[in-house]
């Protein structure tokens, strides 16, 4: 498009070149980096609007914290959470995850 071209009101952030679906206002890079570095707290998922998954990650972190002092197995819970966050970040970077409205993420 050129400067001053009309913007599609149904796709203000553009359309996916393959499927033609409107793109999300959320960035794939931002979501992926948040999930990679703060995934234990569900930051990337909160950013995308996946509040149920993010709450699950946050509760798992808190559960690991409590189990660390109670039984000493919190490290295992946190290790599992770390794997979950890493896999989730990879899925976000590859475009497998969509925003809360089902739109593909922008690059």
From TrEMBL:
Subcellular locations according to the entry: Membrane
Domain of life of the organism encoding this protein: Bacteria
Key word Membrane present: yes
Record keywords, A-Z: Membrane, Transmembrane, Transmembrane helix
Pfam families: TM2
Coiled coil: none
InterPro entries recorded: TM2 (IPR007829)
Domain TM2 span(s) in chain numbering: 25-70
Membrane topology designation: Multi-pass membrane protein
A GO cellular component annotation in the UniProt record: membrane
The protein's name: TM2 domain-containing protein
Biological source species: Mycobacterium talmoniae
Native organism taxonomy: Bacteria, Bacillati, Actinomycetota, Actinomycetes, Mycobacteriales
């Amino acid at each position: 498009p050129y400067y001053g071209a009309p913007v599609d009101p149904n796709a203000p952030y553009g359309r996916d070149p393959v499927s033609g679906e409107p793109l999300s206002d959320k960035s794939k890079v931002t979501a992926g980096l948040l999930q990679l570095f703060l995934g234990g707290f569900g930051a990337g998922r909160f950013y995308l609007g996946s509040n149920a998954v993010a709450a699950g990650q946050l509760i798992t972190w808190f559960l690991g914290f409590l189990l660390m002092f109670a039984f000493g197995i919190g490290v295992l819970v946190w290790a599992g959470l770390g794997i979950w966050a890493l896999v989730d970040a990879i899925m976000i970077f590859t475009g497998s995850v969509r925003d809360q409205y089902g739109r593909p993420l922008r690059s």
